[in-house]
Amino acid sequence: QVQLVESGGGLVQAGGSLRLSCAASGLTFSTYVMGWFRQAPGKEREFVASIRWSGGSTYYSDSVKGRFAISGDNAKNTGYLQMNSLKPEDTAVYYCAVRKGVKYDCWGQGTQVTVSS
Known about the structure:
Oligomer: single chain
Structural class: mainly beta
Radius of gyration: 13 Å
Helix content: under 10%
Number of strands: 11
Order of helices and strands: EEEEEEEEEEE
Number of helices: 0
């Protein structure tokens, strides 16, 4: 059974940093694309970043480009989202997800990130 567990969220002041982790079980990360998404209160879930393990291609939304970095550790079957220069508008529940095809079909439970001004 595939399972994703996020951790690393918390409360941070604007300008600070956090690193989110996504630990996977029941799959081999290297055969998937991993993505990070977020959902703020009253808003739709939005794409943040993704990484294709095979080849290492990364993609970022314009709102986080240059501030966030997605990476992974194959040996630990864990993905990461390093978030720097955080802004209050980054406040949201952050989710990791994986896909082999077009659709992300396995999601974690989410971790709350709150950025105070």
